[in-house]
Fold:
Amino acid sequence: MRTDIMPGVTFPDYELSDQTAKHRKLSELQGDDPMIVVLGRGGFCPKDRRQTEGLVQLHREMEVGYCRLVTITTDTITETNEYRSGASAHWPFLSDPRRIVQKDLDIAEYTDPVHNPMIPHVVVLEPRLVVHKIYNGYWFFGRPTMEELRQDLRAVSMKCRPDWDITAPGFRAFWDQGRKEHFYPYGKAYRDTLGGRD
Structure:
């Protein structure tokens, strides 16, 4: 991974086609929420498929926790759609057969010249695409467990949700005054809290 991609910096706002061939930017998919970006080899990889099985369960928790998830592979759109459908996944999968992300982040997996995939990584992002943590998943056990991702999402949520502790001084007064902008998602339009979800 490029040496300038580290916790605290802004992750590139890549724009790629999703499984329906619609162009999507990471910032659009993220909105104001924490987000996990999975950079994978693709549907051909048994390790990626096993990781996705775990993410299917975690994603159910992420939805009710107002967190986002996106997978990016070097698969074609057809392969991307088949991978997503086969995994029963309900989050956006982005297709990067031109290897824009792989080249930009310098994560070509040179040990697999047949598929020329990305070295698998998982990037946990704070709002505004700020990098919280990066996991290198070339080896399967370098990939985060679902519990590690829960802990990461907890840390990011505590940091970005001002109403994390609604017993903190002043929050009851805000609520009584109708100042719901201090409470998530009450201060947001319904479509804003669901924007980019598939």
The helical segments are 26-30, 46-64, 77-86, 100-105, 146-160, 171-176, 190-194. The longest strand covers residues 130-136. DSSP finds seven helices and seven strands in the chain. The beta strands are 15-18, 23-25, 35-39, 68-73, 93-95, 121-126, 130-136.
